[in-house]
């Protein structure tokens, strides 16, 4: 110990050069921790000489002593981490200072200062003498102890106060703004993140918290064997309360940052999603950077609901080991990882999900009851341009991995077993939670397909590649021929051999019924002779007039909105069209077309769907579109006279039908599911999943992400629908499309981050709106993300252009 002795305060000549600070100023400085490490002495008659130091933990005992020093006539002792103050007499204080602490304070004129760095792995805090021109890499080298070798390659400096990583090792302390009063953390970049998969199972995954979320999702999907990771993202789990009001009406929370002196709250950046759901489903642990009351850091995981017990043999405060093997099922939907198993077993496990999750997990599912609640479900998406750590996520917190962009590129049963299964699971829960509306026939078809998948899973013998093996078993084709056949189909498409006369524009014509709804009128359908050619629908009074007279009605179907309206039990086959106006900025006009039978409906529905994408009947996908529609209609027909070998009482109907349909069918639900199952009982596991996904994609509102917005100059709330090729202005109550804008007519879009207002420039108008149900960054990223998805092709799908993705979604050029 080094000793400094200060004589009584009446010797003013000795102490005149020492800073004179009143005792209340010293106390206030200690309370607010607003001081440096320099020697600070207070000299005043009737007040003791005191020493002001930086307090790391419990400073209240010292404060109480300081407040009573002036009246204390006897000797007393103040003990602290670095300083021992002994009151010998009322006016004489003996100050004992640790040598290393004193040495750190007496550097004068060398431009160095003390930097505090907490090493999370060792649970120690180091003090380094540094200069402002030292680079980050050099600082990390100073932290490494050569006598205790350890792999520090995964560690980096984290600045809690600024909520940022210091990953640019060539930058200096002055360049990044680190000063003497800063506390940095030297912590691992890879941390354990609890991830809920689309099938509602939980994985503890080792994720890089220091890179951008987009890159972290790419690496995570690579570990999970999911191709095209750009279609997925991480989102913060929601609770029912988050659907009760808009994002803007929630109190604006700040990001909690763990500091040695307590928790500090930082305001999120203006150009990111500032939604912070601090709740039990999200804040699933104590966090690796949080301290307890005694100053220890906790790293032990807890369940997403705070109820999972600690693993056997794992002491409190001990981090669990990194996964090195295969995930196994457990009864509560939580996945553990055993060592010594192959990667193939891991992929096979994710390619087949449990029949149903635990009741606890299912009870926490969020079920929207209206369009506005469906819009509020998009509030939790993470910002792809920031790291996970920068968005308030800490180790062992829970995030959900979901398919964010509903455009699924190159689904291949041979390579996408995990991807197809997780996509099927997300579709299944979207239907069971009534996120999408289904008719009775559609609900029973989905239930039948799900029942067939469960039946096939029970006899599951391995990864189903989806390739017919009969030919190879019979020896008719060898492996090379099979591979060449697959390559031809993947490059040319399944309809490459369909004959077509390219010298003649295809045309579709037939008698249909037409209706244009009017307000305050009850007009019915009127029969016309329809001809469809080159994206235009022409209506004549008869077939003879179509050869010699002008059409009575002409409708341009390019960019129209198509909604099916069919009820097989009633023989109703209708198509609802919302057609954009010709050369004006007015709202869409609504027309209805009614067909006579299934075959007619399939042809005209396929034509309308292609027209909505700007494709004519000459497109090679027309025949396959017709075939897909007919297949889905056949799946919805009840099969009569087919023997059912399953006891209806053994079927848990709550696992197969949405609540609304359960109430409607009541006790007949199980029998109706078995009747519908007769249509799909011969499908293989992979075929059944693909049929389920295909039927999901054919639903009217599939792939439309909703947001509550207010247009500039309007007080009324409206809906904005964002799809893969367009954005739509929609009615908040009915969901009707008021106006549609295609991405191919978009010139530019930008955001005013200060007022959270978005402007989109089209060829003929500008659209300005503010988002109410989510942060403006979420809408911006959806639009940019879909434009990025549209740029993919089979020629360049081997490399993922991450730089282009961030240019389109980041908000800054």
Automatic annotation (TrEMBL):
GO molecular function, one term: integrin binding
InterPro entries reported for this sequence: Band_41_domain, FERM/acyl-CoA-bd_prot_sf, FERM_2, FERM_central, FERM_CS, Kindlin/fermitin, Kindlin_2_N, PH-like_dom_sf
Disordered: region residues: 308-327
A Gene Ontology biological process term: animal organ development
Record domain PH: where: 495-613
Stretch forming the signal peptide: none
Keywords from the named record: Cell adhesion
Keyword presence, rRNA-binding: no
Highest rank taxon of the organism: Eukaryota
This protein's GO CC annotations: cell-substrate junction
A Pfam short name: PH
PANTHER family per record: FERMITIN 2-RELATED
Family: Belongs to the kindlin family.
Protein name as it appears in the record: Unc-112-related protein
Organism in which the protein naturally occurs: Lucilia cuprina (Green bottle fly)
């Amino acid at each position: 110990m080094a000793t400094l002795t200060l004589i009584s305060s009446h010797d003013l000549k000795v102490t005149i050069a020492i800073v004179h600070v009143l005792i209340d100023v010293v106390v206030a400085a200690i309370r607010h921790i607003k001081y440096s490490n320099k020697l600070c002495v207070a000299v005043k008659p009737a007040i003791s000489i005191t020493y002001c130091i930086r307090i790391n933990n419990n400073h209240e005992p010292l404060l109480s002593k300081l407040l009573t020093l002036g009246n204390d006539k006897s000797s007393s002792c103040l003990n602290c981490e670095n300083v021992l103050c002994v009151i010998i007499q009322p006016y004489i204080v003996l100050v004992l200072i640790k040598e290393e602490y004193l040495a750190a304070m007496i550097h004068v004129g060398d431009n160095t200062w003390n930097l505090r760095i907490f090493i999370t792995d060792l649970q120690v805090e180091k003090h380094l003498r540094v200069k402002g021109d030292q680079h980050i890499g050099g600082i990390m080298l100073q932290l490494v102890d050569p006598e205790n070798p350890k792999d520090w390659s995964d560690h980096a400096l984290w600045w809690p106060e600024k909520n940022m990583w210091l990953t640019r090792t060539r930058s200096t302390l002055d360049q990044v703004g680190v000063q003497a009063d800063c506390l940095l953390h030297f912590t691992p970049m890879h941390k354990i993140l609890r991830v809920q998969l689309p099938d509602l199972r939980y994985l503890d995954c080792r994720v890089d918290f220091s890179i951008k979320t987009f890159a972290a999702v790419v690496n995570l999907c690579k570990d999970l064997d999911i191709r095209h990771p750009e279609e997925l993202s991480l989102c913060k789990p929601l609770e029912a309360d988050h659907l009760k009001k808009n994002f803007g009406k929630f109190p604006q929370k700040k990001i909690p940052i763990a500091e040695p002196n307590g928790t500090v709250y930082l305001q999120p950046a203006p150009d990111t999603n500032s939604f912070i759901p601090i709740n039990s489903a999200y804040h699933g642990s104590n966090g690796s950077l949080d301290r307890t009351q005694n100053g220890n850091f906790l790293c032990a995981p807890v369940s997403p609901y705070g109820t999972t017990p600690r693993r056997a043999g794992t002491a409190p405060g001990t981090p669990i080991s990194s996964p090195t093997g295969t995930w196994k099922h457990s009864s509560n939907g939580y996945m553990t990882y055993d060592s010594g198993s192959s990667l193939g077993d891991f992929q096979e496990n994710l390619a087949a999900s449990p029949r149903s999750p635990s009741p606890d997990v299912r009870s926490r599912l969020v079920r929207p009851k209206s369009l506005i609640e469906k819009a509020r479900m998009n509030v939790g998406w993470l910002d792809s341009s920031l790291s996970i750590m920068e968005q308030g996520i800490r180790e062992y917190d829970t995030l959900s991995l979901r398919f964010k962009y509903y455009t699924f590129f190159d689904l291949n049963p041979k390579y996408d077993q995990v991807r197809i299964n997780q996509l099927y699971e997300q579709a299944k829960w979207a239907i069971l939670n009534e996120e999408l509306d289904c008719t009775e026939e559609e609900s029973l078809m989905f239930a039948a397909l799900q029942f067939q998948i469960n039946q096939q899973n029970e006899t599951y013998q391995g990864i189903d590649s989806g390739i017919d093996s009969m030919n190879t078993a019979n020896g008719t084709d060898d492996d090379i021929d099979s591979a060449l056949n697959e390559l031809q189909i993947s490059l040319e498409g399944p309809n490459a051999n369909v004959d077509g006369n390219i010298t003649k524009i295809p045309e579709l014509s037939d008698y249909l019924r037409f209706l244009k709804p009017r307000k305050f009128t009850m007009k019915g359908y009127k029969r016309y002779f329809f001809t469809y050619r080159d994206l235009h629908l022409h209506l004549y009074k008869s077939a003879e007039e179509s050869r010699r007279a002008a059409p009575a009605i002409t409708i341009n179907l390019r960019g129209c909105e198509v909604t099916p309206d069919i009820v097989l039990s009633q023989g109703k086959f209708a198509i609802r069209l919302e057609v954009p106006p010709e050369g004006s900025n007015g709202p869409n006009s609504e027309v209805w077309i009614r067909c006579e039978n299934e075959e007619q409906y399939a042809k005209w529905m396929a034509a309308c769907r292609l027209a909505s994408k700007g494709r004519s009947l000459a497109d090679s996908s027309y025949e396959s579109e017709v075939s897909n529609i007919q297949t889905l209609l056949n799946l919805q027909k009840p099969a009569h006279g087919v023997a059912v070998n399953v006891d209806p009482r053994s079927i848990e109907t709550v696992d197969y039908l949405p609540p609304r349909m359960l109430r409607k069918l009541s006790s007949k639900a199980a029998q109706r599911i078995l009747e519908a199952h007769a249509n799909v009982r011969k499908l293989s596991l992979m075929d059944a999943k693909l049929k389920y996904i295909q039927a999901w994609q054919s639903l009217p509102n599939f792939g439309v992400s909703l947001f509550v917005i207010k247009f500039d100059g309007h007080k009324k709330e409206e809906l904005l629908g964002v799809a893969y090729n367009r954005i739509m202005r929609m009615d908040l109550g009915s969901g009707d499309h008021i106006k549609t804008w295609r991405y191919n007519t978009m010139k530019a879009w930008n955001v005013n981050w200060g007022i959270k207002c978005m402007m989109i420039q089209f060829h003929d108008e500008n659209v300005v709106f503010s988002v109410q149900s989510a942060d403006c960054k979420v809408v911006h990223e959806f639009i940019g993300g879909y434009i990025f998805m549209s740029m993919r092709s089979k020629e360049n799908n081997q490399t993922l252009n991450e730089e282009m993705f961030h240019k389109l979604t980041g908000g800054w050029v």
